[in-house]
Amino acid sequence: VALMLLTVALIPMAALPAATSRLYAASAAREQAALLAVQKLDELESKKFNDLSGEGSQTVGGYKMTWTVGGAVDQQRKVKVSVAWNEGKSKLEVTRQVSAGAHRTST
After folding, report:
1. 64 membership: H or E segment, kind and range
2. Total H helices, total E strands in the chain
3. CB 96 within 8 A of CB 43
């Protein structure tokens, strides 16, 4: 009986390192996607307001980025960047309101 209880307790613990590795890999991929999205937003924000329009796409490594820029409303444009990875199974979207003077303060 004790051996059976010990076996039942140890089997789930044996799977723990594999689950931790998968979680770490998923977290690292999501962090990379967020970094790419913010970099693209910063790049778009650094453009002059009147030059900021339309949509586009770009692939970096295994990450496919797409972005759209909304029309001007009260001297602001809504910019949305989507990043997909893992063959499109995972996706992250980031949206930012960009004001007319933002390009003067962007780095």
Report:
1. strand 63-69
2. 1, 4
3. no
CB 83 within 8 A of CB 89: no
d(C-alpha 75, C-alpha 91), whole Å: 29
- Phi/psi of residue 81, nearest 5 degrees: -115, 130
Express each pLDDT in 20-72 by its tens digit. 888 899 999 999 999 999 999 999 999 998 898 999 999 999 999 999 999 99
Q: β-strand 90-99 against 54-60: which pairing, if any?
A: unpaired
Structure tokens at 41: 């937003």
The pTM (predicted TM-score) of the whole model is: 0.79
At residue 92, the 3 state secondary structure works out as: strand
Phi and psi angles of residue 41, each rounded to the nearest 5 degrees, phi first: -60, -45
Helix, strand, coil percentages, rounded to 5, for the chain: 45, 35, 20
Residue 79's SS3 state is strand
